[in-house]
């Protein structure tokens, strides 16, 4: 009876890999790197808008003339629609991070459809744009998360490098991790908000942006948004 056990373990392992590994293709294709050989990187920000950090980040990006992608959370968009609208108006890509920020890998089809749909509608109402990208909370997916996002016109996006700015290691460390970790084509994950606390502190990330932009520019990088 060794074989069935091994097969069961292998199947479980595959399912776990699909659910927990953010870039895993097992549950549908995920954009996790820019399809380019150029010296480009993409800055992406999750969990906003946040009333303290997002405006500072937008200010810094505007000064540097850099466009990024925000994966906004629907319930935060409803709370601060003006900030979400400003990000869209200033030419940044607005992606959908769902509505409640509950992990989706053990949720049923109707829950996932509702969460992604509510996030999408919140962005449409505030920003006047329909998101074409989706990023699952923590990257966790089940077999139906990616197809449901796709059915709503959204490509699922992972990331190449998580900076772990959510550890609050200080602006200097956030900048260093980002700059040292960047490679051509990388999609970098930062946070302008907190998925669980609407006013969670992300000002360290905001303070790191000018250094991140200038150091990456010095190293020859350009900033690209995500390919549609
Ligand atoms: Zn998140």
Fourth CATH level, the homologous superfamily: Glycoside hydrolase/deacetylase
Q: Main sheet, how many strands, which sense, barrel?
A: 6 strands, parallel
CATH class: Alpha Beta
Bound molecules: zinc ion
Q: What is the terminal-to-terminal distance? A: 49 Å
Shape: globular
> What would the average pLDDT be, to the nearest integer?
92
Number of helices: 8
- Class derived from helix and strand content: alpha/beta
CATH architecture: Alpha-Beta Barrel
Summarize the structure.
This protein has 228 residues and is α/β, with parallel strands linked by helices. It is built from 8 helices and 8 strands. Mean pLDDT is 92; it is low at 1-9.
Would you kindly provide a written description of the structure presented here, covering whatever features stand out?
There is one protein chain. Helix 2 packs parallel to helix 8 (203-218), helix 4 (81-89) crosses helix 5 and helix 7 packs parallel to helix 8. The protein is an alpha/beta fold and 228 residues long. It has helices at residues 2-20, 53-64, 74-79, 81-89, 109-127, 145-151, 171-181, 203-218, and strands at 40-46, 69-72, 93-96, 133-134, 155-156, 161-162, 187-191, 222-223. The protein has one domain (30-223): Alpha-Beta Barrel (TIM Barrel), CATH 3.20.20.370. Residues 1-9 have low confidence and may be disordered. The longest helix is centred in the N-terminal third of the chain and has 19 residues, at 2-20. The strands form two sheets. Strands 1, 2, 3, 6, 7 and 8 form a six-stranded parallel β-sheet that branches. The N and C termini lie far apart (49 Å). Strand 6, helix 7 and strand 7 form a beta-alpha-beta unit. The protein is globular. Zinc ion is lined by residues 46-47, 97, 101, 137, 195.
